[in-house]
TrEMBL record:
Taxonomic path: Bacteria, Bacillati, Actinomycetota, Actinomycetes, Kitasatosporales
Keyword presence, Ligase: no
Organism, as annotated: Streptomyces yanii
Name of one Pfam family that matches: BPD_transp_1
Family from the record: Belongs to the binding-protein-dependent transport system permease family. HisMQ subfamily.
Top-rank taxon: Bacteria
NCBIfam families in UniProt: HEQRo_perm_3TM
Record-annotated membrane-spanning stretches: 12-31, 51-80, 101-122, 233-252
Record protein name field: Amino acid ABC transporter permease
Domain (ABC transmembrane type-1): residue spans on this chain: 56-251
Amino acid sequence: MSPRRRRRVSRGVQYAVFVVAVVVVGALADWQQLQKQFLDLSVAQRLFPELITVALLNTVVYTLTGFGVGLVLGLVVALMRLSSVAPYRWLAMAYIEFFRGLPALLIFIFVGVGVPLAFPGIVFPGETHGQVACALGLVSAAYMAETIRAGIQAVPRGQLEAARTLGMSHATAMRSIVIPQAFRIIVPPLTNEMVLLFKDSSLVLFLGVTLQQRELTKFGRDLASTTANTTPIFVAGLCYLLVTVPLGYLVRRLEARHAQAR
């Protein structure tokens, strides 16, 4: 057979295997039991409106506050990473390697348990919201710092040199010329980082939250235990997808626009 013929046959076999696998799974699945355990409408109705007004709202707030803290801290660390002062570079590298190497769960436990034990008088602004913002910010800042550093280095060196020839100081040129262009470059990866933070906010359940501070995962887990049914967890997962899928599509669109602009 010719190469084209072989490729057509190979695709046909793969399609056939996929169809057979779907038919077998569909035939073997207990659809009545699946509907009862994952999509019980009577249980799903009990989730509203708290699912939206409490769980989803808290998840969004936790994500945005953590992203804000991480972005500011990440920018500072990125500038330290690019500094001509060696101790600043060493400190930035130590921060990045330390927080990138630790699991996010360990950071949450450290912020929620370790810090209050080590510093009994310390109080986070907003209590649980402050703890979550700090934990998510510490984790995300390490990744954002490297993303921002790469964006700054991607700006042509001539931009900074041209600004300096016009009489701008180095700080003014970075603030007015380089950093704005860098952020245009790194918008897609920063949006992707927000998607990751939205999912990492589920670790809030390890901090010990009240009923009004629960996010989607904690909310779904509690209702699943109460109702002895997994529908709340399934619905909570759908809420995550309702946010992360559009954000993922936005990331792809931004990447395509950036590639076209380049």
